[in-house]
């Protein structure tokens, strides 16, 4: 089973990665840019595995680049406190 199969597991996984990046001193702008790149890759290359991912992929597909950055930043906010630590 992939971490992408379950929305809560996916948020926890992202939260753990975010915690690690912040603990290593990665600044918010770098995190924001990485979130955008990951979101763009997932939307273009990975099939949605659950309804939440499908909604995100659909929103991403109709969003301008500025709106995509906003979606990526909202995902960062969403997972900030979802790490397992």
TrEMBL record:
Pfam families named in the record: DUF3243 (PF11588)
InterPro entries with a match to the protein in the record: DUF3243, Uncharacterised_YmfJ, YmfJ/YflH_sf
Protein name: DUF3243 domain-containing protein
Organism: Metabacillus litoralis
């Amino acid at each position: 089973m992939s971490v992408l199969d379950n929305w809560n597991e996916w948020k926890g996984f992202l939260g753990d990665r975010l915690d690690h990046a912040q603990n290593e001193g990665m600044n918010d702008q770098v995190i924001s840019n990485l979130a955008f790149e990951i979101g763009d890759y997932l939307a273009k290359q990975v099939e949605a595995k659950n309804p939440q991912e499908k909604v995100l992929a659909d929103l991403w597909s109709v969003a301008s680049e500025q709106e995509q950055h906003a979606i990526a930043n909202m995902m960062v906010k969403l997972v900030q406190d979802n790490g397992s630590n």
